[in-house]
Write a structure and sequence with these properties.
The protein is an alpha+beta fold. The protein contains 12 helices and 17 strands. It is found in: Cytoplasm, Cytoskeleton.
Length: 395
């Protein structure tokens, strides 16, 4: 009897309340790279049908018989090594990009160990090389989510004919310091996060925002900002594996209705290439703290607190979680792409990533559009209301 009851409770606890939307989590498994093939590595992580990820491993110590152990995880969607950039964009990002054009704020995170394809997924391959040769409106297959999202937004704006202004900014968080990747000056002062209207609405002062009119123009900006990211310091690889890169695109839209009123909508899209997940792992042997990334650790903590329905959530403990508060349990729509390597060598990090991603799936947002109607006709409405009341009185 008790069993039946608990099963019933489980069945209902998964039901969403109206207006809620969980973070949509997908997993992308990258192909074996050349070196892994040369080394004879096996692909032990597989994207299966039914949105599952299967991890197979030999677990000698726990499992003296050396039997193969399998673990299976379910997600909102999973993508194997053969997945094209276009397919990934269409399944994961496109729905959120469209929501941006309806006035929603949307965020897509890439989370995973260094070398698993976060930047491949966000930017694409050899981004710097094809930016100049790509010309107007033609993206190569290797283009990632950022160029595809930008291109899609301009395509929709041009088709709809809605009066729109698009602005972009590009920001890096490294060692809890913000750096404006589009700042014209090298020694620009650090941008600051401050509270806007509404409880989880954050603004940044001192961050350059550029109005852009087409994809080619955005690509030229990105070439500058991504070069800045990779050449800013010696040890560029180390830096890019420990820093968070946040591309943001804001669309202001004005639509005039048949009655003459204007509907003003603002949608914001954040595309976030997170630091390597290993930089939030504390080595238990040495208690080494040098690698700890406050923003990444706090992101995990915030996700855990939201899962456990804490009354206080630690958004304020890091720059990343402060900035993206709205995307974590707030009014934005959010998706996460967890990237993993296929090999047996990486299996521990892969399992960490998959468990983390499962936690993120339980985070519920309450999406709300930024839409305002300008009541041009308000005087006319009042006059007709007065007229109606006078008629009522006279009757
Ligand atoms: P991260 O940003 O997570 O550190 P990268 O995006 O730099 O990882 O990817 C590491 C390497 O693997 C790069 O050479 C990249 O081109 C390649 N790679 C990653 N994902 C894929 C994929 N899905 N298909 C083909 N190559 C990939
Ligand atoms: Mg990277």
């Amino acid at each position: 009897r008790r069993k039946a009851k608990s099963r019933r409770m489980n069945a209902t606890s998964g039901i969403k309340k109206a207006g809620e939307a969980n973070i949509a989590v997908s997993v992308r498994v990258r192909p074996l790279n050349r070196q892994e093939e040369v080394d004879g590595r096996k692909a032990v992580v597989k994207a299966e049908p039914l949105k599952n990820i299967l991890v197979q491993r030999i677990q000698g110590a726990v499992n003296p018989s050396n039997r193969e152990v399998q673990e299976r995880f379910s997600f909102n969607s999973t993508f194997g090594p053969e997945t094209s950039q276009e397919d990934l964009y269409n399944s994961v990002a496109r729905p959120l990009v469209i929501e941006t054009l309806h006035g929603y704020n949307s965020t897509i995170f890439c989370y995973g160990q260094t070398g698993t394809g976060k930047t491949f997924t966000m930017e694409g391959v050899d981004f710097n090389n094809w930016v100049h040769s790509s010309g107007e409106g033609i993206l190569p297959e290797s283009a990632g989510l950022i160029p595809r999202a930008v291109d899609d937004i301009f395509k929709h704006i041009n088709e709809s004919g809605v009066e729109s202004t698009v602005r972009i900014s590009h920001l890096e968080i490294y060692n809890e310091k913000l750096q404006d990747l589009l700042a014209p000056l090298d020694n620009a002062p650090e941008p600051k996060i401050f509270n806007g209207k509404g409880k989880d609405h954050m603004l940044i002062s001192g961050l350059e925002e550029f109005v852009v009119k087409d994809t080619a123009e955005v690509l030229r900006f990105l070439k500058v900002s991504l070069e800045k990211r990779t050449t800013a310091q010696t040890g560029a690889n180390e830096r890019s594996s420990r820093s968070h890169c946040i591309f943001s695109l804001t669309v202001h839209m004005k639509e005039t209705l048949a009655d003459g009123d204007d509907v003003l909508k603002v949608g914001k899209l954040y595309l976030v290439d997170l630091a390597g997940s290993e930089s939030a792992t504390v080595s238990s042997h040495t208690q080494e703290t040098r690698n700890i990334n406050t923003s990444l650790l706090t992101l995990g903590k915030v996700i855990k607190e939201l899962n456990e329905h804490h009354r206080h959530v630690s958004y304020r403990e890091s720059k990343l979680t402060r900035l993206l508060q709205e995307s974590l349990g707030g009014k934005a729509k959010t998706a996460m792409v967890a990237t993993v390597a296929p090999t047996d060598a990486a299996v521990d990090q892969t399992l960490n990533t998959l468990r983390y991603a499962q936690q993120a799936m339980n985070v519920k947002n309450k999406p709300e559009a930024n839409e305002r109607r300008s009541r041009k006709n308000i005087v006319r409405e009042y006059l007709s209301e007065i007229e109606r009341l006078q008629r009522e009185l006279a009757a």
